[in-house]
Amino acid sequence: MYDFEFMKPSSLDEAVAALAEEDAQLLAGGQTLLPTMKQRLAMPSKLISLKDIPDFSYVKAEGDTLTIGGGTTHRQVSEEAESAFPGLASLAGRIGDPAVRNRGTIGGSLANNDPAACYPAAVLATGATVITNRREIPADEYFQGMFTTALDEGEIITAVRFPIPEASRYEKFAQPASRFPMVACFVAKMNGGVRVAVTGASEEGVFRWSEAEEALTATFSADALEGLAHPANGMISDIHGSGEYRAHLIGVMTKRAVLHLT
Amino acid sequence: MTKVTMNVNGRSRSGEVEGRTLLVQFLRETLSMTGTHVGCDTSQCGACVVHVDGQAVKSCTMLALEADGAEVTTIEGMTNADGSLGVIQQAFQDYHGLQCGFCTPGMVMSAKALLAENPKPSEEEIREYLEGNICRCTGYHNIVKAIMAASGQQVEPVAAE
Q1: Which residues of B touch A98 (CB under 8 A)?
Q2: Is residue A12 part of a domain?
Q3: What tens digit of pLDDT does each residue of A13-72 get?
Q4: Chain B interface test: which of A1, A51, A103, A175 (most B C-beta within 10 Å)
């Protein structure tokens, strides 16, 4: 890892100001950024730790929404979201391993938008809102492809606001070495219908499976998915599995999620 | 270089570090506490697990400067006050929960974290919790037995297998 200047601002304004410098980079939990820097795939001149930003780490349920601070760890979400939004708590409690969950944060995961990250599936499936220091971004506009988001330079995720689904389930087929999903599906039964988001599978990152959404909105049962198959084009093919294999897993994981809820 | 101070196993320790100095490097190279191991250096194997403010973390994937002011517990802090093996360490010895021993510091620290939140885990819960700790020798059976024993639960005799 190349060396860098390290700073730990005590306010969001200070962090935003520091971020204006060229090659400055935010450090959240560091569970992706530090390994990336070790590989010299990232070499920021300055790292801005978000650790000391006040009111950055919380889980707050209000009415039918759950708001989570950008700096909240996966462990906190798995423990504190359990009663209000069990589907999300269950997802958070299965990211990586316990030590990773103690450091990694929801804001870091969403800003990175790894095509196989877990959180994007929940954010997209519920139509959550990503809140930054400047604006609110709806999930359907936030994710813009592999490692690409709607975030502008100098923008920091301060919170994520989820509408709490009537019922939800995340089913993950984990790649056993990395614990990232090979394919994972988040099924959310929302007020206005069912939404299904898929992570790990597509070269474009997280996406919604609209055919499954329509079928499940009409009839919420695993039988409604019979005969539906996601096409393999655009799916990730690598040593862990072909595009056809991942496409098949989308159907399997979606069905498992629905079976869990019915 | 920047000065960093943290409380390690109950003692205040300071040192000069670079921005990029990892917590595990600070422990091993600055403080000469080599009980914490670096296995994969990619946050997969868990040999480097220590506790920071009571929570298990992979010290190869945390900057030393991020632990400034923190309470850090390492494998060296697992012994009893008289220097004898702590309960978990003794159970690892009794149940032969190691072969080469390289992963053991991380296994013991993860076991300690598990028992703090779940004092009587089932075998399945132990295996689940250790998913971020990789052992290439034992096949995990004796590690799981050692943790069962350390939690005061019945363990079937090792020789039975």
Answers
A1: 56, 110, 113-114, 129, 131-132
A2: yes
A3: 999 999 999 899 999 999 999 999 999 999 999 999 999 999 999 999 999 999 999 999
A4: A103
CATH number for the domain spanning A215: value is: 3.30.390.50
**Which among A5, A75, A99 has CB closest to B49?**
A99
Selection from B2, B10, B32, B45 nearest residue A49 by Cα: B2
Interface subset of A 160-189, CB within 8 angstroms of B: 177-179
| Strand stretches in A24-156, DSSP E | 24-27, 46-49, 59-62, 65-69, 129-132, 136-138
If you write DSSP's letter for every residue of B12-24 in order, what string do you get? EEEEEE-TT-BHH
Q: Which domain holds residue A135?
A: 59-163
Any CB–CB contact under 8 A between A27 and chain B?
Answer: yes
Write down the domain spans for chain B. Answer: 2-77, 87-152
What count of CB pairs under 8 Å joins A to B? 76
CATH of span B2-77: 3.10.20.30
Across the interface, do B42 and A38 touch by the CB < 8 Å criterion? yes
Average pLDDT in the A128-151 region?
97
Cα–Cα dist A208/A188, whole Å: 11
DSSP H or E stretch at residue A158: strand A157-163
The candidate with the shortest Cα–Cα distance to B16, out of B29, A79, B7, A230, is B29
- What is the CATH number assigned to the segment(s) B87-152? 1.10.150.120
Examine domains B2-77 and B87-152 and report if their fold is the same: no
Interface contact B41-A38, CB threshold 8 A: yes
What sign does the dihedral A55-A144-A176-B49 (CA atoms) show? negative
**Closest CA–CA distance from residue A176 to any residue of chain B (Å):** 9
Tens digits of per-residue pLDDT, B67-94?
A: 999 999 999 999 999 999 999 999 999 9
Residues B92-149 have pLDDT tens digits of 999 999 999 999 999 999 999 999 999 999 999 999 999 999 999 988 999 999 999 9
Complex prediction ipTM: 0.95
Distance from CA of B84 to the nearest CA of A (A): 27
Give the minimum alpha-carbon distance from A75 to chain B in angstroms, rounded to a whole number.
10
pLDDT in tens, B20-60: 999 999 999 999 999 999 999 999 999 999 999 999 999 99
